[in-house]
């Protein structure tokens, strides 16, 4: 096994609870959608999302109906993910939302960054949304620990080509990058591209082990399996 020089992490189900995303973030955006579009629909970034939603909508469906349908389906469609990030921004800034992180995550991220391991994110949430969840997390502002942020504009998380593109973007051999996710199909795609993989099987999220990848219950478990440093308090 090649030494790990970089970690690429998923968010929902990996660094943060599925319940936080589904019961806090998604409803926040759902409830604010129409008001946000009324207030900000003329702004170029918002108008571009609406235009793209109209382009991708089913025949006879308008842009807002398509956005509502994708929300109900939890579809990872770029204009929806971009809009959600823009809507959450206000909630993070005024303190109505605080980014959930499992308590084991921040100490490991800090220890790995201190040791020179490159830290990167790959989530279906937009890059802006990724920076918000880590920048306004329960463990403080962790956004600066990460150097690479990748979202659906790089490609789908279940496609090997997306991971190949990320490795090229990071100028690293795929086998030196460890991808962390709770979703077996994402790990399959990363493994096909040559990444090392580890499934986060978080009991509180009800994740089921795939049996196809190495697995860990938390980030210290990842560290132990892949020779990454442990935070001092858990090193013993
Ligand atoms: C950036 S936090 C919100 C995550 C999100 O919108 C989502 O759809 C979950 O995606 P992930 O790829 O992190 O499972
Ligand atoms: Mg996930």
Automatic annotation (TrEMBL):
InterPro entries on file: Enolase-ppase_E1 (IPR023943), HAD-like_sf (IPR036412), HAD_sf (IPR023214)
Keyword Amino-acid biosynthesis applies: yes
Source taxon at top rank: Bacteria
Catalytic activity: 5-methylsulfanyl-2,3-dioxopentyl phosphate + H2O = 1,2-dihydroxy-5-(methylsulfanyl)pent-1-en-3-one + phosphate
GO molecular function: 2,3-diketo-5-methylthiopentyl-1-phosphate enolase activity; 2-hydroxy-3-keto-5-methylthiopentenyl-1-phosphate phosphatase activity; acireductone synthase activity; magnesium ion binding
Keyword Aminoacyl-tRNA synthetase in record: no
Co-factor note (free text): Binds 1 Mg(2+) ion per subunit.
Cofactor requirements of the protein: Mg(2+)
Keywords: Amino-acid biosynthesis, Hydrolase, Magnesium, Metal-binding, Methionine biosynthesis
GO biological process: L-methionine salvage from methylthioadenosine
Pathway annotation from the record: Amino-acid biosynthesis; L-methionine biosynthesis via salvage pathway; L-methionine from S-methyl-5-thio-alpha-D-ribose 1-phosphate: step 3/6; Amino-acid biosynthesis; L-methionine biosynthesis via salvage pathway; L-methionine from S-methyl-5-thio-alpha-D-ribose 1-phosphate: step 4/6
Record-listed E.C. numbers: 3.1.3.77
Stated family: Belongs to the HAD-like hydrolase superfamily. MasA/MtnC family.
HAMAP family: Salvage_MtnC
Role: Bifunctional enzyme that catalyzes the enolization of 2,3-diketo-5-methylthiopentyl-1-phosphate (DK-MTP-1-P) into the intermediate 2-hydroxy-3-keto-5-methylthiopentenyl-1-phosphate (HK-MTPenyl-1-P), which is then dephosphorylated to form the acireductone 1,2-dihydroxy-3-keto-5-methylthiopentene (DHK-MTPene).
Oligomer status and interactors: Monomer.
Name this protein carries in UniProt: Enolase-phosphatase E1
Species this chain originates from: Teichococcus wenyumeiae
């Amino acid at each position: 096994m090649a030494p790990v020089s970089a970690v690429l992490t998923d968010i929902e189900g990996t660094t943060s609870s599925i319940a936080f995303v589904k019961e806090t973030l998604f409803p926040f955006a759902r409830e604010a959608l129409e008001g946000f579009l009324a207030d900000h629909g003329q702004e170029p970034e918002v108008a571009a999302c609406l235009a793209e939603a109209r382009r991708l909508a089913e025949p006879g469906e308008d842009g807002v109906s398509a956005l509502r349908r994708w929300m109900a389906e939890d579809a990872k469609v770029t204009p929806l993910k971009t809009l959600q990030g823009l809507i959450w921004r206000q909630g993070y800034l005024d303190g109505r939302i605080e980014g959930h992180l499992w308590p084991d995550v921040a100490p490991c991220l800090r220890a790995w960054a201190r040791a020179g391991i490159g830290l990167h994110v790959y989530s279906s949430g937009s890059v802006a949304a990724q920076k918000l969840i880590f920048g306004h997390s329960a463990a403080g502002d962790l956004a600066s620990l990460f150097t690479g942020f990748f979202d659906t504009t790089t490609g789908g998380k279940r496609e090997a080509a997306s991971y190949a593109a990320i490795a090229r973007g990071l100028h690293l051999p795929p086998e030196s990058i460890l991808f962390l996710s709770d979703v077996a199909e994402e790990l399959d795609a990363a493994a096909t591209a040559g990444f090392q993989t580890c499934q986060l099987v978080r009991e509180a999220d009800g994740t089921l082990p795939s049996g196809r990848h190495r697995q860990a219950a938390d980030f210290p478990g990842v560290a132990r399996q892949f020779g990454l440093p442990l935070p001092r308090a858990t090193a013993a």
